[in-house]
């Protein structure tokens, strides 16, 4: 019973016949024929690809030869493209923050080297002095290279920038007289932002400073004529230790010295001891006017310019932030629209 049930549930497959010798030979031949066809097709494809590649290379070589034959290095279009490319590369170098920082430190290093070269102790050590002079010469070469990059980048606009024109003059003279190179330190005023702000503030009040300078010049001239007339013979009489008022120019120099509060008490005492008891009547008012009032006027003008500059920076920052926000701001109770 068990075997009957299992036979009913299980399907028995008929045994497969073994392939005959002829069948196996036919299959082998067919497979070999297909393989030969495949290899033949592959070789044909490779040959076609090789032929097309060779023809393409020949066309490219021919085109390159034609372009080379027709190439004119003085063609205006080619020259213009090359010029703009060089200008672009020079601009990237000049406007780089690394480039600017490097030359700021180079100016400082050059100033220190020139200062060290003035010491007698450095001159005694010939090896150290030689290295100081090498640093100085290297800085000059690098400064010249920087000016070259600036000229390539700015081109015709180069001479519209006073600071760059000043650098050109200093470097040009430095090739003849090395001591003039120290004036390059002034270029730090234009490179450091905080110093640039102070210079900008000073130039913004040039009219006020000019007026104050003109008033001081008038004051010195008036008192110069007076003291020269009154005290011209004091040195010849042995009253003063130096010829302070021998002529008008000597008087100008003495009054400028008094304006800086240098030695005015000694000059006044020499005159008073020598018999000019009322000399203080001229010296004290002049000292107060020139050394106190006008000096404070200078400081007041400079301080006002710096405060105005800070206010302008603050207003610019507020407007810039408002523009970025793109909305409405309430500034001291007033609606400001961007």
Which helices and strands appear, and what pairs or packs with what?
Blueprint: H1 2-9, H2 21-70, H3 76-94, H4 97-116, H5 120-124, H6 126-154, H7 162-174, H8 188-191, H9 193-204, H10 206-231, H11 248-259, H12 264-273, H13 280-325, E1 328-331, E2 334-337
Antiparallel strand pairs: 1-2
Helix pairs in contact: 3-6, 4-6, 6-7, 9-13, 10-11, 10-13
Mean pLDDT: 76
Rg (CA only): 46 Å
Alpha carbon gap, first and last residue = 101 Å
How many H/I helical runs?
13
The count of DSSP E runs of length 2 or more, i.e. the number of strands, is 2
The unreliable regions are: 1-9, 327-338
Q: State the order of secondary-structure elements, H for helix, E for strand.
A: HHHHHHHHHHHHHEE
Structural class: mainly alpha
Write up what this structure looks like.
This protein has 338 residues and is an all-alpha fold. It is 75% helix and 2% strand. The protein has 13 helices and two strands, in the order H-H-H-H-H-H-H-H-H-H-H-H-H-E-E. Strands 1-2 form a two-stranded antiparallel ribbon.
What is the compact description of this entry?
This protein has 338 residues and is mainly alpha-helical. It contains 13 helices and two strands; from the N terminus they run H-H-H-H-H-H-H-H-H-H-H-H-H-E-E.
């Amino acid at each position: 019973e068990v075997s009957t049930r299992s036979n009913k549930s299980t399907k028995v497959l008929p045994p497969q016949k073994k392939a005959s010798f002829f069948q196996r030979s036919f299959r082998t031949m067919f497979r070999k024929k297909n393989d030969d066809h495949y290899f033949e097709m592959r070789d044909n494809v490779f040959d076609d690809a090789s032929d097309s590649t060779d023809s393409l290379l020949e066309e490219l070589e021919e085109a390159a030869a034609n372009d080379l034959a027709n190439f004119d290095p003085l063609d205006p279009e080619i020259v213009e493209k090359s010029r703009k490319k060089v200008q672009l590369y020079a601009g990237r170098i000049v406007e780089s923050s690394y480039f600017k920082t490097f030359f700021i430190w180079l100016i400082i290093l050059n100033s220190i080297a020139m200062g060290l070269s003035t010491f007698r102790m450095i001159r005694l050590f010939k090896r150290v002095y030689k290295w100081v002079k090498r640093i100085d010469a290297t800085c000059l070469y690098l400064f010249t290279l920087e000016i070259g990059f600036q000229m390539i980048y700015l081109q015709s606009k180069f001479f519209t920038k006073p600071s760059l024109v000043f650098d050109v003059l200093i470097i040009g003279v430095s090739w003849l007289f090395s001591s003039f190179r120290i004036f390059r330190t002034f270029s730090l005023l234009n490179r450091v932002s905080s110093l640039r702000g102070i210079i900008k503030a000073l130039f913004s009040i040039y009219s006020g400073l000019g007026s104050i300078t003109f008033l001081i010049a008038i004051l010195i001239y008036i008192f110069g004529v007076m003291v020269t007339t009154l005290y011209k013979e004091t040195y010849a009489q042995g009253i003063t230790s130096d010829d302070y008022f021998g002529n008008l120019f000597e008087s100008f120099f003495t009054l400028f010295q008094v304006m800086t509060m240098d030695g005015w008490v000694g000059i006044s005492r020499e005159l008073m001891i020598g018999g000019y008891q009322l000399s203080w009547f001229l010296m004290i008012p002049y000292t107060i006017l020139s050394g106190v009032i006008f000096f404070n006027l200078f400081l007041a003008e400079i301080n006002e310019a710096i405060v105005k500059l800070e206010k302008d920076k603050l207003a610019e920052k507020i407007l810039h932030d408002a523009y970025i926000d793109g909305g409405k701001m309430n500034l001291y109770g007033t609606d400001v629209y961007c």
